[in-house]
Specification:
The structure holds two protein chains of two kinds.
Chain A: E1 9-14, H1 18-30, E2 35-39, H2 55-60, H3 62-83, E3 86-87, E4 92-93, H4 95-119, E5 123-133, E6 136-141, E7 146-156, E8 160-162, H5 176-179, E9 190-194, H6 198-209, E10 213-217, H7 229-241, E11 245-247, E12 251-257, E13 263-269, E14 272-279, E15 281-284, E16 288-290, H8 297-300, E17 323-325, H9 336-350, E18 365-367, E19 373-377, H10 380-386, E20 388-398, H11 401-406, E21 412-419, E22 424-431, H12 435-447, H13 452-456, E23 477-482
Chain B: H1 2-25, E1 37-38, H2 44-49, H3 75-87, H4 97-113, E2 121-126, H5 130-141, E3 146-150, H6 166-171, H7 173-194, E4 197-198, E5 204-205, H8 207-231, E6 235-238, E7 241-245, E8 248-251, E9 254-263, E10 267-269, H9 283-286, E11 295-299, H10 303-314, E12 318-322, H11 334-346, E13 350-352, E14 355-362, E15 368-374, E16 379-385, E17 387-390, E18 394-396, E19 430-432, H12 443-457, E20 473-475, E21 481-485, H13 488-494, E22 498-505, H14 508-512, E23 519-526, E24 531-538, H15 542-554, H16 559-563, E25 584-587, E26 590-591
Parallel strand pairs in B: 2-3, 2-9, 3-6, 9-19, 11-12, 11-17, 12-13
Antiparallel strand pairs in B: 1-6, 7-8, 8-9, 10-18, 14-15, 15-16, 20-21, 21-24, 22-23, 22-25, 23-24, 25-26
Helix pairs in contact in B: 1-4, 5-12, 7-8, 7-10
Classes of the chains: A alpha/beta, B alpha/beta.
Amino acid sequence: MAKGHDYDFDLVTLGAGSGGTRASRFSAQKYGAKVACVELPFGFISSDQVGGAGGTCVIRGCVPKKLLVYGSAFAEEFSDAGGFGWKASKPDFDWTHLMSKKTKEIERLNGVYNKLLANAGVELIEGRGSLRDAHTVEVALSSGGIRTLTADKILLAIGGKPVKAPIEGSEHAITSDEVLALPDLPTPRRIVAVGAGYIAIEFASMFNGFGVDMHLMYRKDLPLAGFDGECRQRVAENLQQRGLHLYPKTSPTKIVKQSNGSFSVTYKGDTGESTLDDVGLVVFGTGRSPNTKDIGLEAAGVRTEKDGTIIVDEYSKTSAANIYALGDVTNRLNLTPVAIMEGMAFAATAFGGVPTKPIHERVASAVFTQPPMATVGLSEEAAVETLSGDLDIYTSSFRPMKNTVSGRAEKTFMKIIVQADTDEVVGVHMVGPDTPEIMQGVGIAVKCRATKAQFDSTVGIHPTAAEEIVTMRSKTRRVQGKAKTEPDTNESRSYQQ
Amino acid sequence: MRRLRRQVRRLDFRRWKWERRSRKLAAEPSSQSTSAIKTSNMTSLTAFAFTGPALASSCRHMQSSALPIFSRKPQGLLSLHRWAQSSSPSRLLQGPQQVRQSCSRAAFRIAASSEERHYDFDLFTIGAGTGGVRASRFAANFGAKVAICELPFALVSSETRGGAGGTCVLRGCVPKKLLSIGGEMRETIEAAQEFGWELDSPPRLNWDRLRENKNNELQRLNQIYMKQIETAGIHFIEGRGKLVDAHTVEVNGKKITAKNILIAVGTKSIVPPIEGAEHTITSDHILDLKQAPKKLLVVGGGYIAAEQASIYKNYGAEVHMFYRSEALLAGFDKDCVEHITEQFEMRGIHLSASTSPVKIVKEENGQLTVTAELKSGEKITLDKVDQMLMATGRKPNTLNLGLEEAGVKLGEQKEIVVNDINQSVSTPSVYALGDCAFRKPLTPVARMEGTTFAQHVFGGMKDVKPEYDCIASVVFSSPQLATVGLSEQEALDKHDNIDVFLSSFKPLQNAISKNEGKALMKLVVNADNDQLLGAHMVGPEAAEILLGMSTIVKFGITKSQLDRTVGIHPTSAEEFVTMREPARQFRNKKLQEE
């Protein structure tokens, strides 16, 4: 019995992904709450019956993706190595070998998550949990039977799942879950990826490295909607140079399975309708939706948007006073470290006696294309839209040192956006090797509202690509912010440890 | 906007014509040295057109630590910043400030021409390395008449050989990093097998191809430096410059006078006088070997030694390191040194601490037999050594430069003793920067000093000074070590209460490859005010990761600000914002027990 209440637990968390695990652990370990965490049995392809501790990030997202991206990036290394005198012709690639290694690593990490929860004194209950009322969770145990848990507070951290665009033959297409557990590369070695958000584009880039004939179809004129325009342009150019076929302003309309097992994809673009044959696999990266179906939200008085997104306030509290939600199911900023931040803020708010808001402003993120892209703060377009006054844009495009000898023509691109009257850096964007690693430290500075002068006075590290960030001296252009008044940028209380 | 730019261009053109006229009127140095001086016909106008982001200057070095630090409302910075904008030459093409700027340039020329004594040049620079070229270009951009001399190009330096670009480009950072990238590719190719790539045979290296490609790149960079000099309208003289007096330099037998003389001659390797030392090589040579050694002995435990040991280990050599001290990389953070020492051993580099070579014998087959003495007095012998690198230190290149004769004060290491604006303490018309001033021998530091020198002396920015705090430095070994701010030991010297955060982890790519290499990250925090004092890392991409960290250490970010930053997942760098519990705490300089 939880102390001082008539409930079994102080907290029951549904979902042991990054956010749910962190929230449960901190509530238990740091603030002494009695916590149970409900999660589905482990498996690679998620469903109503399959999940696993670690959640999307560890099992079906960031981690397996990055491992496959590493694997794929070797293709680039083989060709670059030639310039450095290495005789290594591009060898054959064994997908099943990589997959078995990946599986092992993911299983290991899943075990780590289980252990983290156990060590924090959180009871992990395997099964499917749903709400009966605002204080009661019913778990259909995977071992059979039903267990009813009562809780003072309930946290919904049940994530999202990939959705397919509703077109004819979409049942033949797969989504990110299946891509990351694909038993073998398809025959014929041709893949159509639909969508150009970061998921679709990372997969497209990855498969291209593995030697797949890659076709990427998307509705906009450039991939990666929402990111900085110039960077999107650079990414598209890089992908094209590496042999990807890009189909901007294109939507697939029909997928037909042929008798030999291959697919034909009919698509509509600027020039009308055409069909691409001999496609081995169709991958949909057309968005994700919150996992909120049939978990009893109405019964508990938790309100959602039309698309199922749980509505929360700035403390991650839902419309039910004792029920909170965080991570992808709240569709704020769907990134692992953000869910972790929300988890810690929740624990401090609900059990630490320190109401704490997670701050979603100036969060750095990366897209693991080849080469990758990294970004923090406002894109140039967003800066123009949301800020007022003069904005100074600094850009630099240069050949990374490795490419001078490897012969690779690609250039690294970096961009800094500065609010002229305060000299504050409001956005930094980069496309090129190592940019996600470079961005982290830069992101801290931007988050702490560093000025351009402060960047300038930092002595570079030579020779690196990163030093370019502190040596961009003359602005490329000045643009005008369109907002009438400057928005209030005062940060409210951020979370305490 | 476009109209404004056109106006600016017109204005620049007018200034250019005016300057060309005034330059013609000024006495030409050609009367003295017609053949030796390659006069550049490029104008200052084109110089500005070529001023890309990397070339352009800034006067922003001026803000000091007294400024409001990452303040939410940086009003305090405003006026200073505006001033910086208005006086920065890099901003010339962008706004009406250029009017003021061109006026100040004119003022400088007038002031220069009204000097009592006439000089051939406003500035004469000896040495076209990073610092010398930066200083000269910026001085020229401020309207100074500048000449620079440099020795003929060669990869191995001597009294008669050098080349534009200097140590960094020809015998340091650049070739080293290229060789390092190439060497780490072996590891990459081998790791690829664990990721499912099926190699028929182990990777083989064509050393000649690597060397040729590397040297092509060095030559290209040397040409870029030459072009920059030309574009900035600087007179380039190929030859060895020697000081005659406080205002006169002699090159190729011709005497040239200058109002200011800048010494930027760098350093060179020193080889201790042991028996058979003539059979050893220095860092100049090892960066351009005709053949990769099968067995390499590196003497020294500093960053050059560590880097070269790593590089040739990666190319497959059997590598031994002898060093006099007990630990590698003296001066770096102890945890980092311990960690990297373990990693070196794991990679199969043979380390021998407290060991000094005493005798080197060249055998008939050309291989070396090296006798060394341990601290205990015990002698050991290493034979069949293909190359022996002496990485035992560098010293300023200030011999036979006429410095002492001209009364320029030299320090203990023969460095030119300068004040906080790189001016000789004995001879006001002489300045020195970069390695030969022996402060912090790093390329970006020389570049900074070059910038501040030009701004101070020719740009009228008397408050500008180089800032030496929180300069990151990196050892490009495998794995890399990167560091900024105070080490744990330094922090304890200066502060009573310290929190140390440590994280050691296997980078994600090593989860699949057989590489057992681990990364280490470390933060040193002042427990009194939560301020970050130092950030250190050993591991892949450490150099790239540390750059951003150096900005935040420099500007006194607190640990809680770091904690509030959301990580980038999955990266190694995110570890810097996810370290929650201190590994060690010191109170009143005493380690606290758990």
